[in-house]
Amino acid sequence: MAAALDVVGIGNAIVDVIAQADDRFLERQGLRKGSMQLIDAARAEELYAAMGPALEMSGGSAGNTMAGIASLGGNGAYIGKVSEDELGRVFAHDMRAIGVRFDAAPLRGGAPTARSLILVTPDAQRTMNTFLGACVELGPEDIPAELVAAAQVTYLEGYLFDPPRAKAAFQKAAELAHAAGRKVSLTLSDAFCVERYRAEFRALIEGHIDILFANETEITALYGTKDFDAALAAVRGHCEIAALTRSEKGSVILAAGATHRIAAAQVAKLVDTTGAGDLYASGFLFGLTHGRDLASCGRLGSLAAAEVIGHFGARPETSLKALAQQAGLL
Question: Which of 84, 133, 253, 279 is the most buried (most CB within 10 A)?
Answer without folding.
Answer: 279
